[in-house]
Amino acid sequence: MCDGGNWQSSYPIQLRDGQGEALTPSGEFDGTAIYEAKVIGSADFNGDGSRDALMSAMCIGGPIAQCCAGRSSHSTIALPLTTSRDRKLSVIGSPITAGETTPCDEFVLHLLPRELRRARQRP
Q1: What is the average pLDDT value for the chain, to the nearest integer?
Q2: CA 42 to CA 52: how far, in whole Å?
Q3: What value does the CA radius of gyration of the chain take, rounded to a whole number of Å?
Q4: Phi, psi dihedral angles at 101 (to 5 degrees)
Q5: Largest Cα–Cα distance of the chain, in whole Å?
Q6: Which of 96, 109, 12 is CA-nearest to residue 20?
Q7: Integer CA distances (angstroms), 8 to 50, 75, 113, in order
Q8: How far is the C-alpha of 119 from the C-alpha of 123, rounded, in Å?
């Protein structure tokens, strides 16, 4: 999910209450955490006639307890998600990543409105 940044991990991240960390089998932090994950919208993103979910999350390169110590340590992403027949989630295409900064130095998902418009226009 956070592979677009420098936060690759070999281990899955289990989300609880919108957050989770990649941990090795021995319980050590593996370089990636997800914070503030939440569903922010829905549309038919893949054109199959069913509504899919759009999830927003903050990817961080440190443990959640030490979150956001520096500008390059976090980035907000948006993920279009769909469910398969066996009810497993999968990402549709690539994550929508941050691209611009505001005067308050927070990333803006500038592609999000255009992607939502495209999804609504699909037959």
Answers
A1: 76
A2: 5
A3: 15
A4: -120, 155
A5: 48
A6: 12
A7: 31, 13, 27
A8: 9
Q: What is the pLDDT of residue 93?
A: 80
- Phi and psi at residue 40, to the nearest 5°: -115, -5
The total number of residues written for the chain in this structure: 123
Position 84 scores a pLDDT of 82
Q: Is 70 helix (H, G, I), strand (E, B) or coil?
A: coil
Are residues 108 and 101 in contact, defined by beta-carbon separation less than 8 angstroms?
Answer: yes
Q: What is the mean pLDDT of residues 25-41?
A: 90
Round to whole Å and give the CA distance between 43 and 69: 35
CA distance 109 to 46: 20
At 75-98, the pLDDT tens digits run 788 888 998 888 888 888 877 776
Q: Which pLDDT band, with edges at 50, 70 and 90, does 3 fall under?
A: low
Q: What is the DSSP letter of 16?
A: B
